[in-house]
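**User:** Hello, beginner here. Are you able to go through the protein record under this note? It all follows right here:
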Amino acid sequence: MRFYTLTQIGEFHVNHNEDYLVIEECGNDLKLIAVMDGCSSGMDSHFASTLVGKILRKLAKQESYREFAENKQKDVKDLSKSITLKLFDDLGDLYRQLDLNSDEVLTTLILGILNTKKKKAEFIIIGDGLIHIDGENFEYENDNKPDYIGYHLNMDKNVWFEEKTSKMSIEYFSDLTISTDGIFTFMNHDGKSYQKISEAEIFYKFFNDKGNLNNPNKLKLTLIEIKEEYGLMPSDDLSMIRILLE
C-alpha cells in the first residue's frame, strides 16, 4: 500500500494555505483520510481546516485504542458515522469554549474510512471537492457556497448528519484519491505561452499515472511538471491524498 500527499498554497493566496490533510490509523487495517478547505471569506480560515484535522486525528487514535481494548472492529460505514458525529460534538464544544464566531469554523471536509484488507471505503462529504476511484471521478460542487458544518453546530447532530452530509460507499477500490476543489483551478501563472493540456489530462496525471511510484513526492513532482511544461498552477489552495493498493 502506497500513500502520496500534496498540499500547495494557491497562486491567489499570500499568507496561508487554507487547506489541511490527515492520514491516521483508526484500527487494524483501517485508515482515516481527510482533506479540508477553509472558507476564504471566513475569519482565519486556515485555523478552521487545521482544527478539524486535529480533531479527526485525535478521534482516529481513540478509535484505534477502543478497538484494541474491546477486540472488536467496526464496519467502515458505522465507523465513518460515529467519527463524524464525534467531530460534530467536539467542534461544537470548542466553538463554545473558545467563544468563536461561526465564520471562524468554516471548512469543507472529505472524510474517508478505509478498510485496506477488504479494500472497501466509506466517505462523508461536506462541501466541495473530488473523489477519484479506480478511473472514475466524483465531483462535489455547490456553486461555491458549501454548506459548512460550522453553520449547524447548534443543530441536532443526528438530523444534521442525515440531512446535511453526502455519503458514498465503495465496495472495492485499488487506487483512490481525495482532493480539495483546488484541483479545478489550474491556470497560467506567468503570462507566457506553453503547450496546451486539458483538465482531464491534469486529472489523469494526478489520479491515474503509474510513473514514479517509488517516490513519496510523486504528486509534488506532478505539480512541478505541470508548472514547467504547461505553465499552470492552482489559483486556489490544493490538497490531495492518493492511496494505491498493491
